[in-house]
Amino acid sequence: AVTSMAGYSAPMKSISTSVKGQRSLLETFLRAQGFHIESAESGEAALEMLRKGSFAMLISDVRMPGMSGIETLRRVRHEHPALPVLLVTAFANIRSAVGAMRDGAVNYLAKPIDLEELIASVRLATERRGHAIPPARMERSVPPGIITVSPLMHAVFRDAAVIAPSETRVLITGESGVGKEVVADVIHAWSPRAKGPLVKVNCAAIPENLLESELFGHEKGSFTGAHQQRIGRFEEADGGTIFLDEIAELPPSLQAKLLRIIHDGTCRRIGSSRDFHTNARVLAATNRDLEAQIAAGKFREDLFYRLNVMELHVPPLRERPEDIVPLATHFITQFSQQPSRFSATVSACLKAYRWPGNVRELRNAMERAALLSRGEIVLPEHLPARIMGAKPDSVPAEPGDAQRLEQIEREAILKALRKNHYNRTETARELAISRRALTYKLQRLREEGVVIDPVEPAP
């Protein structure tokens, strides 16, 4: 996508070449930030555009038909040595990342693209060249009825607002009980397909021998018990959205069939000799590490990349502790017959507990507390024993201790970044935190004046 800025003191243009769906998403996002976008379908086309116009930045995929992104980068370095280049790829590894940086890339982003990391890289590169950049735009707010004050969750919904208007497939990841289905609901509600159906299928809840019929349908008499024709969930979702929850549980026998319907929108009911076509946007969710599933031979790599055009990671409740008491208050109000409040000890226990079951576990605990309390105050004995036993530390950290802990964390993050050649995904994995949590921590460090990004190599 070529980005430009009209109405500012200097023209801003940058080129990104990738698959059509990815280009569309980048264009939508960067336009929402105030940039003007053009697009090139290949490295060759991007070079031709650069020769004819003035551009501020190139954003290119690495693997493309024809000229690769690395070769495009080298040609750009020869013809336009001062032009910043941002490379994007689903096949990131340390060797290629180092090679790209040596060839003159400003940064190297792994797919699925983190939109906050993308805009930070674009703004940093264009600021260094002295271009005027548009002020940050306000994104759509958290939807009504969703309780959150966490910056991490606000960032999830900001990304959802950018993704929703496109046709991009989305993989929603996160632990069990974090609210992945809620995010899928929001994407559908904010999309142009909102008036169409939202069809949900839990791939783990349906027996394998019935799942194919559930998804794709069957003809009358196609197997024992098929007394009439059945329309599958993909056909039901035509013109709308289909949400495939627990996608990692999809048996290998159905993964190829799913791959085809994602590729061209066509499939065949069991027992039929004719294909049907459906125009359904696919959202998928999983609480498993699909890359590990691929390595174990349990999930198709090509299907993973088809589904994972854009990833939204929903952080666990322990990474957004500021949401715990507001959510608990919301749930206790739902379940209680009269206004209820928490004792100080209960609030402390709720904050100290790790919540392995996330929001779902918190909701269940509040349903139990409402039943047992029968009054306006929820006491520790009204909580499940495992939560009641989660006592907070009795001695709070002194201010000096807190500062030392922050310094230790800062040094650990910067060390891991350098070790992993500024690859956010690998850094988050080494630090044992989510990529979203790492992005939030890096934003805070930037605000404190800490240099996060690698120095742009000399042209």
- Across the major sheet, the strand order is 8-11-14-7-15
Q: Whole-number average pLDDT?
A: 81
- Percent of residues in beta strands: 5-15%
Quote the distance from N terminus to C terminus: 23 Å
Counted beta strands: 17
Shape: globular
Weakly predicted, low-confidence segments: 1-12, 394-399
What does this entry look like structurally?
There is one protein chain. It is built from 19 helices and 17 strands. By secondary structure, the chain is α/β, with parallel strands linked by helices. The protein starts with a strand and ends in a 12-residue tail after the last helix. The model is unreliable at 1-12 and 394-399 (pLDDT under 50).
Question: How do you describe this structure in short?
Answer:
The protein is 44% helix and 14% strand.
Record keyword descriptors for this entry:
alpha/beta, 459 residues, single chain, 17 strands, 14% strand
Helices, strands, pairings?
Elements: E1 2-4, E2 14-17, H1 20-32, E3 36-38, H2 43-52, E4 57-61, H3 69-79, E5 85-89, H4 94-102, E6 107-110, H5 115-128, H6 151-163, E7 170-173, H7 180-189, E8 198-202, H8 208-216, E9 217-218, E10 230-231, H9 233-236, E11 241-245, H10 252-264, E12 266-268, E13 275-277, E14 281-286, H11 290-295, H12 301-307, E15 310-313, H13 324-335, E16 341-342, H14 344-352, H15 358-373, E17 377-378, H16 385-388, H17 399-419, H18 424-431, H19 435-447
Parallel strand pairs: 2-4, 4-5, 5-6, 7-14, 7-15, 8-11, 11-14, 16-17
Antiparallel strand pairs: 1-3, 9-10, 12-13
Helix pairs in contact: 2-3, 10-12, 13-15, 17-18, 18-19
